[in-house]
Amino acid sequence: MKTSKHKLHKKIYWVLIILSLVIDYIFYSVLKDQFSLFFLVCFSGIPFFLFATGCFGLLWPKIKPEGDDEVYISHSLIIGLLFIVLFFIHVWIILPSICPEFGTLLGV
Description:
The protein is mainly alpha-helical. It is built from five helices and no strands.
């Protein structure tokens, strides 16, 4: 029972990652001219949220803390670093590969 539930969770996390990439592609490649820059920048948080949730869910069994309070403090710092890395992957690798003009839209 536990392994089938674990496999279902892994599938859900992979679906979230794929859904985030599909949303990125649709909004930042196909429909980018239909929306304002302000909306696109603000909306980018939603696919990032899905992407980060999927990655975190897949990594959780490997990074789950066990121990005293000091372990939890270091674990929270590691998780914060993980989310920073995921954010940079999303903003500097995934979005520019889907929408090559993303940087020029932002004025960079």
